[in-house]
Amino acid sequence: MQARDIAVSLPTVTTRDSVAKAVRIMVIGRLPGLIIVDDLSRPRLVLPGTQVLRLAVPGSYQEDPALARTIDEAYADQFWLDLGNRTVGDCLPRDPARPVTVPTGANLLEVAALMARTRSPIVAVVDRDASLVGAITLERLLTSLAVFGLGEP
Amino acid sequence: MQARDIAVSLPTVTTRDSVAKAVRIMVIGRLPGLIIVDDLSRPRLVLPGTQVLRLAVPGSYQEDPALARTIDEAYADQFWLDLGNRTVGDCLPRDPARPVTVPTGANLLEVAALMARTRSPIVAVVDRDASLVGAITLERLLTSLAVFGLGEP
């Protein structure tokens, strides 16, 4: 099998979408992360779910874990309200990593090694002009490999 | 809300379980990662799904991405067969990170900030003697925060 054989079509977002929308798309689709595309449908970023969450965590709490411990529980339940209409582009780190992509012809061990190394449970599959063809999630990879059929329970 | 209020009971593994079993438990439970406990039910490691996958990727391919590209597609579909009966303990990195845990009284912003910083979509909730009380997944956190109700679609 090649990456193209197991790639699936998943919703994407752009940097102009709100962070709230991005989180909602991820939750509703039960996705482990999101692919952020540019206007030509090329992956610009591939964010693991924890880094989509990070977009919604106010910067001061990201940097200083002890600070979050001091705040009021009721505020902590609603910290994401502070987001307002901020967009994905507003909240991205300054030097985002290169998008985690594989060519359509990549084999499944390449995909697995890439996920393991980049700690990204979602990988964008791109064609020769870098356009998005589909996505491979960790779950999709593992079920395609039928690893769950291996050995005894 | 506090961590104890949204913690759920999820299957765990020990270092004596096979990697194949660990992967299978993760896939069947649709879990974003696994908590590895010791014999006293204390979290020893909290592995994001990509790092559970990593246990199954032969070391040489982890280190050298180009190597995976050179191999036969049929072998790539079955690389995990090389695992045999190797256990989680056999395959762990030499210097594993401290387990990603929060106390039962942690607020939800603390949990969110920890997930974002450690890039771990699963967090172990522990009581005062470090025993496992439950787990919080990224999905559980986000649905508890009802972030998906925010703003327009």
Automatic annotation (TrEMBL), chains A, B:
Coiled-coil positions: none
Ranges for domain CBS: 94-152
Membrane-spanning ranges: none
Keyword Hydrolase in annotation: no
Swiss-Prot/TrEMBL keywords: CBS domain
Signal peptide: none
InterPro entries: CBS_dom, CBS_dom_sf
Family annotation (CDD domains): CBS_pair_bac (cd17788)
SUPFAM superfamilies the record matches: CBS-domain pair (SSF54631)
Keyword Cell membrane: no
Entry protein name: CBS domain-containing protein
